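seq as requested:
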Amino acid sequence: MASASRPAAARDLPAWELAPATETDSLEAAQASCRAIAAAHYENFSVVTRLVPRRLRQDFATVYAFARWSDDLADEAASPADAARALADWRLGLEACFAGQATHPIFVALADTVRRTGLTIEPFSDLLDAFEQDQWKTRFATRAELLDYCRRSADPVGRIVLGLEGCREPRLLERSDAICTGLQLVNFWQDLKRDRLAGRVYLPADDMRRHGVEETMLDLASAPPPLRDLVREEVAWARACFDRGSPLADQAPPALRPAIRMFLGGGRAIAAAIERQDFDTLARRPLVSKATKVMLAGRAWIGLHVATLRGAR
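struct tokens:
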């Protein structure tokens, strides 16, 4: 796995040999490395981990570290070809992990999570499929194409999180998919300018034609009326996803409900921020205020403790 070396975003972490670890503390060291990656690169990690039982916090960090490392291998590579090679090697590492032959510290930690929870390789493989697709696909003709991308780039995360608590009920997985897809979509609409500068357009071409929107409009300092109308429609699409998935916040395993509520509330808050700007995300990137983030975390925290008290009774 020589190509799956240390991404730039993780160079401040301890170096690792890609040979099988045999030291008695190898799992503990691997788990500590995952926690460091999560804490360094995910600003809400400490908030989220307070919303789940202590027994799940390491697993959250391990799953995040896998996703973060995979993303960095794709984004930090010198070229799409280099990224493709690194991701191919990383996929071999994933397959070795599920075959009981983990070497990289993230996979050492992940193997322990898999052993205890029964997670399958499919959602992790789907995430890598999406990162690989990013190297060659930068436009989407239809909503169906974009949803297929979300199915592999966003939905696996929710399925993995539910799997940590052994939740595999199809009805709940579908609601999780709806929330994750909504989060992915609303982030696309929030980041139209950033993605355009990176050479990517996530607005479906069919929708753009229907609204009379040309790609060159994405280069303007502010969004013209046709683009605002299109973004209004796309935000409504994301909100419909949130509505379909929202029952999950009361139906998921109790340990996961507070975090689900926070993510669902965060997605809706981004949609509201876009609306407050009259759906113009070119003039400035819509942001959720710190006060709103604190409020969402506070509501989730209260919900967690109310549920705990009810359980005690």
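DSSP finds 15 helices and no strands in the chain.
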